[in-house]
Structure formats: C-alpha cells, structure tokens
Design a protein that fits this description.
VC0802-like, Rossmann fold, 14 helices, 15 strands, elongated, binds adenosine-5'-triphosphate, binds magnesium ion
C-alpha cells in the first residue's frame, strides 16, 4: 500500500543567507504544525529537508488533499502537492512505478509528463518525460500535448526517491509569520483593513488587531466575525489578539465641539494616538491601516499627512496604491469579503462634506479645543483584549445580520 505525504514548496526563504534560511525554515515548520493543530489535524510529522517541507503520512489522497488546503494558507508557502514517495533503482524501474501510479489517471486524456530532477543520475528529466509518456500512451491515454494538456503528470526525482503527483494547491508565498516584527493593525472589519492585515502577515509580521468601537455590542460582534476569519484561516504560529477600545466618549466630544468638516480628521488623529500608545504597551513596532490614496476624503495625500502628524510611530499602509476593485478581489480571495460586506456604513459623526485639504494648524487647534487629548491614556488603559484563537462566536453572533455601525464618509470630490 502506498503512503501519501505533502510536498511543500517555498521560494523567498531560499534566497536568504544560510543562517536566516535555517531560522525561517524552522518557523515555517512550526507554523505549519500550528495550522494542522488549529484545524484539528493530529498525528502528522512535519520536517524541512532539501529546500522543501514535508508532511507525513496520510491514509489516502483525499485526506492528503484536505490537509494540503490548510497548509496552503501558511504564509511563506508557495504551493503544496499531495505526493506518493517511492524508492527506485534505475530509470526502467522509475518508469514502471510511474506507469502504475498514473495509468488510471491518464486514461482517455490528452496529457503531458513534467519531470524535475535533483541529484546525480545517469538519465535526464527529458528521458523520464519521454519514456513515461510512451508508457502511458500504451495505457489508453488519448494523446500528448505539452502546451495545453488536459492532465499533467508530475514527477519529482530527488536522488534515490521519486515523487508522483498531479495536484498543485497554490499558497500565498511571502515569509513565515514571526520572521519580521510585531505590528498592530487598525482593524475596522470593513473591506480594506482585513486585507491590509493579511498583507502584513504575508510579509512575515505577527499581526495583532485593534478595533475602535463606535457602535457598542453589535459593532464589536461584526468586527469580531471578520477577525475570526482572519485568525482561523491565516494567523498561524502565534496567539492573535483583538484589542478593543471604546471610543464613544471621543466621538461624542468631537460631535459636540469640532466643526463638521474637520471631524473625521480629528477622529483619525485620535485613533492614531490611541493605537501608538497601545503599540508601545504590547511591543508592536509599527501601525498598519487599510488606507488607499484618494479612496475617501480622509485619504487624500494632504489629509494623510495631517493624520500622520499625530504620532511618531512608523505607519504602514500596504493598500496605498490599490484601487477598490483590487482590494475587493483580494478580500474575496482571502475569505473576509462576505463578513465584511455585512458591516453597514453608519455616519457616527454626522459629516456630509469632510475637508479633503485639511490644514495642520487648524486640525491641531480643533483637536486641542475638543478636550479629547485628556482621554487618550485612560481609554488605552481600558482596552479590552480578546484571544482570537480561543474565542468562539456565539450563535447569536453567527446568525444575526446585525445593522453594524461604521464611521462613514463621502468620497473626495
Ligand atoms: P475599512 O474598509 O478598512 O474600514 P475604509 O476605506 O472604510 O477602510 P476608513 O473608514 O476611512 O476607510 O478608515 C481608514 C482606516 O482606518 C481603516 O482601513 C482602518 O485601518 C482604520 N479604521 C477606521 N475605522 C476603524 C475602527 N472602527 N477601528 C479600527 N480601525 C479603524
Ligand atoms: Mg471603514
């Protein structure tokens, strides 16, 4: 009986120097183990060897494929294939093993054999492709087409071992989470900020989320649902946290005391101040936002500059050059879109015409006069910490399509 295993490919790690490569491979292995455990997969071995990671062993192809889909959500992984490993003695033996593996799979199909070889052998990859191709044609395959086959038979030869497979599950690529530092992502649960958080995970950051609650319990429940998607599907290798700061006292002061067209800017500055304080407390080295240039009024170049003035911490905006459709496509791909879409826009600040060209001295003046600066320390102290891994969504949270609140604003004119 053959045993199935997973062959896991990574790319960027391979470009590093020896020491960092070791460290990153170790991280990748640990994160894959965490992905397996988090998805209830028990009793598998995971190890790195020869610039690949291997996961072993599976009863059958179906089980291996199911687990491959989990492993393909670990950052750093380029692709995963369920494979069968066999030992071969010479080229004829290899072709015989390949014929056995593929003969039922190629029946009636136009196919191509793709061979890849590592190590020293007295034959080439081309020899394998040619001989195995001929053998499979005799087994009832319909024909060979190298450019546009219906079926691809993959053969990977590593010294004395050969691996057969026909499925490649694509992963995100990037770097293993934990290889870069810790960041704190300003997470509204809307469409953009989950994608921004995902992009930083992909660059190897440990990403914790910070949610500013404007609309009470239903608002938090909605954001939590989106955060759970990210945590369960993508945040492996650490314990992801969702920090919650209730900013209603600040929203109230801003509504009462700041002229309408500056309210969004003053609120965004307050968010940055709160986030910076919390970042320092939890050891995060940068903030992340889902801003994209020109998407809404607070995201004009001028306004971003005025918002940035409120803090001195590094602020990363991975979506700055993306347009909305690109962000939506990414949100669909990573699985956050459906939950994010349920968050309804809500104009908590009652702003109909926000400024697109804020002046720094005015923003500072309104901010000071509003009295919100006295609240910053206190609100950070009161921040709530939710462990996203262990948190279960209540059935009420799962099923209610609640009318969620969201600070909204007009598009820049
Ligand atoms: P998103 O879809 O992420 O809500 P957006 O395009 O609606 O983004 P804004 O509402 O202006 O943009 O917010 C810009 C960024 O500020 C967000 O991407 C997010 O990083 C942060 N942000 C906005 N509202 C909140 C909130 N309630 N809690 C945490 N961060 C927020
Ligand atoms: Mg938003």
């Amino acid at each position: 009986m053959v045993e199935w295993m997973l062959l896991v490919r990574y790319s960027e790690i391979a470009l590093k120097g020896r020491a960092s490569r070791r460290r990153m491979e170790r991280l990748l292995v640990e994160n894959i183990r965490d992905a397996l455990a988090s998805n209830g997969v028990k009793g598998k071995r995971v190890w790195a060897r020869d610039a690949r990671v291997w996961v072993c062993c599976f009863r059958d192809e179906v089980e291996a494929f199911r687990v491959a889909e989990h492993v393909a959500r670990v950052m750093g992984v380029v692709s995963v294939s369920p494979v069968v490993e066999q030992v071969f003695h010479d080229l004829n033996h290899l072709v015989e093993l390949g014929r056995e593996f593929f003969k039922e799979r190629v029946k009636g199909k136009v196919f191509a054999v793709r061979a890849h070889r590592v190590g020293e052998h007295d034959f080439t990859s081309k020899d394998v492709e040619k001989l195995l191709g001929e053998a499979l044609l005799k087994e009832g395959a319909r024909g060979v087409n190298l450019e546009n086959p219906e079926y691809e038979a993959f053969v990977e030869i590593r010294w004395g071992q050969v691996y057969f497979y026909d499925k490649i599950v694509r992963g995100p690529g990037g770097l293993p989470v934990g290889s870069e530092g810790v960041v704190l992502s300003l997470f509204s649960g809307g469409i953009d900020s989950p994608v921004a958080s995902w992009m930083m995970l992909k660059r190897g950051c440990i990403v914790h989320l910070l949610f500013f609650n404007i609309g009470g319990k239903p608002h938090l429940e909605g954001a939590l649902r989106v955060a759970k998607v990210l945590a369960d599907k993508w945040m492996y290798g650490y314990k992801p946290k969702l920090y919650v700061i209730d900013v209603r006292p600040i929203v109230q002061l801003i509504s009462d005391r700041v002229p309408e067209h500056y309210r969004i800017i003053v609120l965004r500055r307050a968010m940055m101040r709160l986030a910076e304080k919390l970042a320092l407390r939890i050891g995060a080295e940068a903030l992340v936002t889902g801003e994209s240039l020109g998407q809404v009024a607070s995201q004009t170049l001028r306004n971003l500059r005025v918002i940035d003035d409120a803090t001195s911490i590094l602020v990363l905006r991975p979506l700055i050059g993306f347009d909305k459709q690109e962000i939506v496509n990414k949100a669909i791909e990573i699985g956050t879109y459906e939950e994010s879409k349920k968050l309804q826009e809500y104009c908590a600040l009652g702003v109909s015409k926000p400024t697109t060209r804020a002046k720094l001295d005015e923003a500072r003046k309104f901010e000071e006069e509003s009295g919100i600066l006295d609240l910053i320390d206190k609100l950070v102290e009161l921040a709530e910490e939710i462990d996203l891994r262990s948190t279960k969504l209540s059935s009420q949270t799962m099923h209610r399509r609640n009318q969620l609140l969201h600070a909204c604003e007009a598009k820049p004119s």
